[in-house]
Structure formats: structure tokens, C-alpha cells
Amino acid sequence: MPDKVAWSVSGDGENIYFSNHNKYLYCLNGRTGKEIWKVRLLETENLTPVLADGRLLFGSPDRKIHCLSAATGKEIWSCLMSDPITSAPAVNEGKILMGLKNGDLICLSLSEGNVQWRKRVQTDLNFSPVIGRGVIIVATVGRPKQSVYCLGEAVAPGLE
């Protein structure tokens, strides 16, 4: 069994996924605790894996968004961002949303990792976006003020 869990844990009802301070991302059987796979990472700071359609998504301090097979841990794709990633991903209808340190909200396709659009909101989008009913809610804690934004279809096309 790995040492301490570093950040948030995700699960799919069968397996659990998490990182530790030894810079590994793990998949364990949720019932038995048996290791299914582990992947060595460059860093695990603030790593929150999110599951969507059999894929495990997370941002890393190396400015990359990674997409792994949840079953095997093998990388499907990765995408280099212009700034450090500061939020966990949110997934809706085949789209991934994440915040960057420079204040950009990024939307990528789940299938390929291609950037669909970006919107400058404010510095440090530290919290995961929330998606629903055609809007995106994002919160910030950076300067000059703490804010909550609600972005609609005109800003974020294609979200349900």
C-alpha cells in the first residue's frame, strides 16, 4: 500500500485513484486495496484526478493537462498550456474545463485534448469550474478581489 495520499481521491465505484508524496499516481481496487497500476509523475502538487468516460484527467505543475486510460494508466494524450494549471478539471459533454494561473479558463476536447476556446476571467482560477444548464461558474481568490463568475453560451459555446 502506498504511503499517505497527497491530494483528492477519485473513484468509479470499483477502483480508486489518487497521488502520493512519492510522486506516483495510483489505481487501487476499492474493495481489496490491491494495486492495479501506478504511474510515476514529475510532481503531485495539487493533483486532483477526475474520471470521465474511462479516462483519468489531471493538470500537473509542468503546465500539462494529462489524459490517461483509467484501466491501464497509459497516457492517451497530454496538452501543454501557456501557464500553470490551478484548478482540477470539470468535464461535461466531451469538454474539459480548467483554470490557469494567468486567469484563463480553458476548454479542451476530451477525445483529442485540442483547445476549443479560452476566456480570460481573472488571475488565479483556483477552484474547479462548475458546469450546468448552459452556464459555467468559476471562482477566484486572486487579486484584486475574490469573485464568482457565471459564463453563458456566448462565452462558452457548446455546453449543456
Description of the molecule:
Helices cover 0% and strands 46% of the residues. With 160 residues, it is mostly beta strands. The protein starts with 9 loop residues before the first strand and ends in a 9-residue tail after the last strand.
Q: What share of residues is helical?
A: under 10%
Distance between the amino and carboxyl termini: 40 Å
Briefly note the CATH topology name of the largest domain: Thrombin, subunit H
Main sheet strand line-up: 1-2-3-4
CATH class of the largest domain: Mainly Beta
Runs in which pLDDT lies below 50 for 5 or more consecutive residues are none
Largest sheet: 4 strands, antiparallel
How many domain modules? Answer: 2
The helix count comes to 0
Relative strand content: over 45%
Question: Architecture of the largest domain, CATH level 2?
Answer: Beta Barrel
Brief overview:
The chain contains no helices and 15 strands.
List the keywords.
160 residues; mainly beta; Thrombin, subunit H; Lipocalin; 2 domains; four-stranded antiparallel sheet; 46% strand; globular
